[in-house]
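Q: Sequence in, structure out?
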Amino acid sequence: MLDTGKQFPDFSLPNQDGKAVKLGDFAGKWLVVYFYPKDDTPGCTIQGKSFTASKEDFKAAGISVVGVSQDDVASHKDFCNKFGFTIDLLADTNAELLKACGVGQSEYKGTMYWDRTSIVVGPDSVVRKVYEKVSPQGHEQTLLTDIQQMQKADTGTSAHAGS
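A: Exactly. Output:
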């Protein structure tokens, strides 16, 4: 798993509309990359709905959110359409970003799935916090609160730098 303080891996992955989304698109911004096991499953649906419902709160706080799974673009498109998601879901079909971030896998009913993991990336593209084996219910609020505290700490640090 990526450690805090490490550079987040560069990536370019297609979203549900087939548009390439790159790490560079978020330069100077806070970013939540949440990895989830599979489209249209109960926990993943909870997460997608929660992030969509709180999208404006994240936006107001200057935080972007993207979901990543190994499902393809068509699957992501169907998943977004079915539940009205307004967040980007990125298709990591070759699991390159999943592996680069060190996301774990767990077996469920004889099938291996990627662990539900969230990574907070700072405006400098450095990993600020990693959440492993996340419970989807209410996780978005935990992320929002934690990142707002990190933002305050960053502001405090830079405000005192010149004094």
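The radius of gyration is 16 Å.
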